Amino acid sequence: MVTENLRIHPGAPAAPRMCPTEVIETYPMTSMLILIGLGVGVGVLLGQTVAVPLAHVMRHEDTLTEKITGQVREALKRAIPPGLARHFS
What we know:
Shape: rod-shaped
Radius of gyration: 33 Å
Structural class: mainly alpha
Low-confidence stretches: none
Distance between the termini: 72 Å
């Protein structure tokens, strides 16, 4: 963009650079969204670096519901006669 301006107006001075505080004051919403995006990106990267090595160490343990369901199934298998049980499987 600056090079295009120099081609069009060769004698024109380059646009003055704005310091970061001026940019934030001029474009507060854009600055905020950029910083939120950077924060989320850094958080995702840090989360990935921590979670991936731990995922191999962690193993699945049955929840209380899964444990109770398994106990009920075993109790029903023992209580129902074999001839009737094959209709439910």
